[in-house]
Amino acid sequence: MKYLREKIVFFIIALLSALIINFVLPRLMPGDPAERILLKMGGDIQPEAVEAMRIALGVDKETPILKQFFSYLKNTLTFNFGISYSYYPVPVKDLILDALPWTIGLVGISTLISFVLGTALGIRAGWNRNKPIDSFVTISSLIIRGFPYFWLALILLYVFGFLLNLFPLSNAYSTHEFLKGWKFFGSVIYHGFLPGLTLVLASLGTWILTMRNNMVSVLSEDFILVAEAKGLKDKDIMNKYAARNALLPSVTSFGLSLGYIVGGALLTEIVFSYPGIGYLMYKGVTSQDYPLMQAIFFIISLSVLIANFMLDFVYMFLDPRTRG
Amino acid sequence: MKRNVLFLCVMVLSIFSLASTLSMIMDVTGPFSQNFNPFFSGGTNYSARGFIYETLFYINGYTGEIVPWLATDYSWSNDFLEIDVTLRQNVKWSDGKSFSADDVMFTFELIKNYAALDSGGIWQKGLKEVKKEDDFHVKFVMSKVDTLIYTDIFSVYIVPKHIWETIADPTSYTDSKPVGTGPYVLGQFTSQVYTLQKNQNYWQKEKVKVDTIRIPAFTGNDAAQLALMNKEIDWGTLFFPNIDEIFVKADPEHRGYWLPEGNPVLLFFNLDKELFKNPDLRKAIALGIDKLQLVQIGMANLATVSNPVGIKGGFSYLENDNLKHMWYERDVEQAKKILTNLGYKLGKDGIFADSKGNKLSFELIVPAGWTDWIAVSQVLSSQLKQIGVDVLVSQVDFGLYLERIKNKDFELAVSWVNYGINPYFFYERWLHTRNAFSGDNRGGWISLTTDSLLDVFRKTSEEKERELAISALQLIVLQEMPSVPLFFNPTWFEYTTYNFVGWPNAENPFALPTITGMDKAFIIMHLEPVR
């Protein structure tokens, strides 16, 4: 139980430091949030309107930094993040609740697909090392991994969306009609396909290569030799002996990437005009929207920490050495 | 069977022509929130301004014309301390209630009580009281003479008293179900697309031939540009480099754009620095600039070169013809001569230096990421090198950039001035002491003579007197060169005529194609569906 206690203490310390950094960092940005709206409008706004905005945001008066910090702590820990500056006067909570399902849906599902597919291919490649199938899988994963993924997204959008007209160019569902029920669901899948494909391709190579290399090193272990000597079936050796052991490191990184899902996928969201947390965060940072930025950073830190914590738990069961 | 299909086609077609839908890009700011509070700016709020809520008059930013809207007429008192406004009768709110002076009174009281809503700063500028004369007459009383204040008063969006008086805090009110007097009401809403439907109670509904406006959400420019090229969008406001090549060329007959002059971009000298207090040095630098080249290379030839006095084409009658001999072009020899006369000597590296060896080398700040302005600054730097002045371009984060200008912590800056609806506003923002450094007078031009000439604009109602004042100001601009007007940023506007005709363009410039305010409502009333 010492292990568990250590992990809980670590969790709390990490969360607290994340909270403090989250508060300090945005405030180190130079400039004035009200003036950032000038940027949004390309300067096309009356000086008086900036002054009115300053009053609305409450940045016309100096608030002591400690007072700001305590109201921030209170707001954050009660999940009441205040009103967004850049989408004034929409509450930050509403913005996040609007964006989160799309992010979790798109990034979550593509992470899962990519992990399952990549791992399965990696097992095959590792098992058949130095055979044509291995070279093919390994080389193509290296190539895919070499593409900058926003570029891949642009190419997919241009070829399949614009030239061939097979997929929609933007948005998460049809913007031409207001669909309901199954039709809406179908439209969501149709619109999510290209952005999802980009994300799957972007991370597939890494999963394949990780799994293949793990497989190769596990296959050189003695117990594999023993299994072969016992005359077990190849399929059983591959799945029950080798893959099960090779999977551990991949599970770790999968767990971590689950934590990062809520961070969204900024570039994919921008290229496909897909709603999500990534774009919201970008918007928050560029318009110096403290409440929005803090809320998103907090949620990301929280979910990464929780994913880590859960992983430690899972490890307790998977790896007897940690139970101590 | 065939006949059935044909019949079906005709049916579908007739439905389409009965209910005409226009698709437009309002703002590339990502998913929508149901926020139609007209007192704030941004994505969905823009729809509220003009399409849902309306102002007393529409001030046409291109022609300067004051078009009666919710009000039919206005008149000044003899001492210029009061404006009488006659309101339009038979105007209804979209919920069926009648519009009257009470709503106007309520709206002005609202922005008085909540300064955060007063985006024109009217109550700060000297509005003292709003009086109801009768149900359709309102009197605005001022504490001091300001004959330009009407532009701000007439631009306030009027909200219904019977709804807004029940709202506890209008500064945090998202107005998700707006009730206005305007041509449209909110149709369906999702975070990816919403529609505006024609208001069946509208007071000039015979002018509205666009039944539905569809506004999809875009997160990035790429997808928005592709949608425009794919005929999914009729009205765009996108930044679009290579617009001829990429957008128009595919179908010149149905695709067009118009990029009227937006805000002017200028080279500012920090006049707080001893060196720049010398007008001859400023003049030499101004003579070293080739504005046409800046626009051709830096702005992809999509911006309009400014004349030396910064007056837009639409207001050329305000240019002082007697001063045109002082208008200048690039003249490298003359620039070098001025610098030599000032006592600078050309060094071996081709840069002038004073007797102590201090080189004429300056830092020019420009907002980071503003790629077109950065390109302009780099061209500027190479042009000035030819007259022996060294300019280092530094890209600064936008927030820091404004802060450095405010703190007088810069040497040269490429920046802009908000033009406003006519050159009077531009000159006031550009040159008045009250706006030095903290406002649009970014170089900090401080001069009592200039101020007293600028004050004439707001003290008289005689157009002649204003013209005289702005003529005199042009002399100051040409002699002193407080900063150098370079070009006007383009106002981005693209349209297609597949579904609607009647768009404003260079041949028919009846209004500015901006989407932030009333202009879009005025424009939409000029559109006709294609049959």
Task: Write structural notes for this entry.
The complex is a heterodimer of chains A (324) and B (531). With 324 residues, chain A is mostly helical. Chain A has a domain at 93-287: MetI-like fold (Orthogonal Bundle). Chain A has helices at residues 2-27, 33-40, 47-57, 65-77, 92-127, 132-146, 149-163, 181-219, 222-229, 234-260, 266-271, 277-286, 290-318. Chain A is globular, with a radius of gyration of 24 Å. The model of chain A has no long low-confidence stretch (mean pLDDT 86). Chain B is built from 17 helices and 23 strands. Chain B has helices spanning 2-18, 43-52, 101-113, 122-125, 149-153, 161-164, 221-229, 243-248, 279-287, 291-298, 332-341, 371-385, 398-406, 423-431, 448-459, 463-480, 519-524; strands spanning 21-23, 57-59, 66-68, 71-76, 82-87, 127-134, 137-142, 184-189, 193-198, 212-216, 235-236, 255-257, 261-269, 304-305, 345-346, 352-353, 361-367, 390-396, 412-416, 483-490, 494-496, 500-501, 528-529. In chain B, β8 (184-189) and β9 form a beta hairpin. Classes of the chains: A mainly alpha (324), B alpha+beta (531). The interface between A and B is large, with 58 and 61 residues.
